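#struct-pred

JT: dropping the chains for the assembly here, can someone run the whole complex?
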Amino acid sequence: MKFAVKALSSGKARAGVVHLGSCPSSIETPCLLLSTRKGLPIFISPDLLSSLPSPDSNLLQFSPLHLEGASSTLVSSGREVSKRCVNIGQEARWGDTTPNFDSSEGPSPKTISSIGGLHQMVGLHEYGFAAVARDSIQCLPECGSTNKTGASFETPCGRRLIKPVEYMEMITSMKPNLWATLADEVPAWANNKRNKTSVDRTVKWLDECIARSPAGGAVFGSIVGGSNIEERKRCAQEVAVRNVSGYWIGGFGLGESMEERPSLLNAVTDNLPKDWPRMICGLGLPEEVLQGVAAGVDLFDSAYIYHLTIGGFALTFPLDRTEKIDYNYQLSDQGSDRTKINLRATVYRKDATPIVEDCCCYTCQNHTKAYINHLLNVHEMLAQILLEIHNTHHYLGFFRSIREAIKEGCFEQFQKKFVQSRREHLAADVVSV
Amino acid sequence: MALRFEVLGRFNRARAAQLTLPHFACQTPLFMPVGTQGTIKGLTTDQLEEIGCQIILGNTYHLALRPTSELIDELGGLHKFMNWPRALLTDSGGFQMVSLLHLADITEKGVTFQSPVDGKPMLLTPEESIQIQNRIGADIIMALDDVVRTTITGPRIEEAMYRTLRWVDRCIAAHKRPHEQNLFGIVQGGLDPVLRDICVRGLVDRNLPGYAIGGLAGGEDKDSFWRVVAQCTAALPEDKPRYVMGVGYPLDIVVCSALGADMYDCVYPTRTARFGTALVPEGVLKLKHNAMVNDTRPIDPTCACMVCKNYTRAYIHCLVTKDAMGSQLLSYHNLYYMLQLSRNLHSSIVEGRFPECYIIPDSNLCASRNSNVVRFLWQFPKGDVPEWVCNAMDVAGIDISSCCSS
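RK: done, full complex below.
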């Protein structure tokens, strides 16, 4: 993997380029890592993936835990799976109290190796994979059960404890382009003692992971520290002196407020060398992404697209950065807020226009709001497929405008204007009611 | 009449033809995936075109409920609504009504039932069925028939058969778009050859663009099933398409094609995909089975579809029944399999090699000509071909004795 910073805006935002062996083209940063489940997008089948803009859409995030089988320990039995969204088929089930006790979620590491690794297994040879244990959609860090032997996650198959040895076994067999070391992430409200332990543990596991690092594949050192500025700084400094190719910033999106986040992010990035890429988990919303970019982060995952998609929402916020922003959307009081529309709303029953008029994604080029409204009403999987395509396409466009703003040296204004315009809509809607 | 049917090749009773419909020129024998609610579950129209789907079936009952035929009409018809450029067929709505609604009642007027939306009593008449189908706009529409399960005996079957003929006249009268939509009549009569014969004659007299053989694929024994198909195909006109409704399994399609049928529809390939079962030349492959966990072979090494070219059984195993993607990939493969089966049927009949290539496994002829040919008798490696298949092939004039151990 190669990374280079190409442009800086005022402040710490930077535009860069990352090159991965398997991808024919370089990918510009800041960029979005598409969420996957077991290596493939949740709804977009591999042949439709190529309809998304390339090479923007060529970087995929993947959690080895999706495929882990008998190698990890099933911790809980009969305990209620935490109330997260468990996506089975096209319906989301909340508070599912009957965890699936399949001991095998996927092929064994040996089998995956014999197939040739992750790229081979999922048939996406020209894509880049970033492996991170945490996946903000379905593999959520569960710090209560994490202990000195391993990190605990809530997954659709129950709570799983992963030890560094097991994690590295999976990484070695899967051969992702880049991977984050195993981390102990704590939520923002963790007490100081627990937080300090998480930093010590994360650094220790980093060293253990590096020791078992396979040849090929770039190591991203994991940095935690919760909502404590000093711990964040300490962890960053420790990791900065390790022999890694990039940094994975964990522990965000776990309860910290929008207001306290920038200083925590800066505490990390201020202590990292500028020339290595920084990846982060848990900053999903556009405003949160902008905070990350402002602090100098380069690679982002996002659960935003997934949650929009299963909710029946389609992104519509303008990507046009010109002064005059066109707000010709039908103001609907049924969940549409001029940044996204709720396609279940009856107002779209006969709307024969695409989601966004000049959007060139597969969905907008081929289908109407009326059709998607119908698909949602009759619970057809095609609805989620079409929405994931559009939402991904739109969000990739958002990242493109971020990059353009940085290259033009006006990222700070871009961020300010974007945040302001979204707040203005909400204020206007409240007043107009 | 809004279709042309041209036979391009024959083998005894089997025929390969071009069926030219307003939206698409299809090749028969053909298989129609069922797109119940205006979509094939989990596949885009692009993907359907990619795998060679020529015509899709839409369920009138479901579409009339949601989003309603009036809305579809207002938005330009189902083709436009779904953005499907090729052909469509809608059924009459009668079957769902009878099979889904246990309180349905059939009278001379039509099918009375309780609306699933608000419980109000409703009536689906032949006229109403045709009006709904006119609004939906499919290339082929089906007459409302009085469907009776083949497992029932007694005077009800005769009553249903005559009523079907009377309803066909009402359907013809109500049909407002005969130059854009082809109204097919459906042959009823249960398992009684006399009744079936009367029905066939009655429908042929009405000179419809095409004919369906209905009332089968509902639990009758296979020996009765093939005999009804054989009788009907022998009596229906040569120069019009013959559609066996609700069929079905690959084996059934091959046998019915040998007997002279042209069109088929079934939910089986997509439904079984959602339960983790793949269609393969040897029969079925249950991907959910623990044996698949580390199996690095493709689902079907002879299949050229995207799924078999890229994925192992092991990977599909970890997806099926747990992730939407599993359903999608298996549905894709299963439909590709059925469509490839139809393509092979068509080309092997046209090229004069229907019996060798189709029926007899391990023939050197086959190996060199077409590695994708489905050798359906591979399902019976021990030569235990069911008797009904042997009997049917006998009538079809195809010698499969080399494959039967008995």
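JT: nice. Residues 382 and 394 of chain B are 20 Å apart (CA to CA). Chain B touches chain A at residues 37-39, 41-47, 50, 62, 66-67, 71, 74-76, 81-83, 290, 293-294, 296, 306, 309-312, 314-315, 317-319, 322-325, 327-329, 332 (CB under 8 Å).
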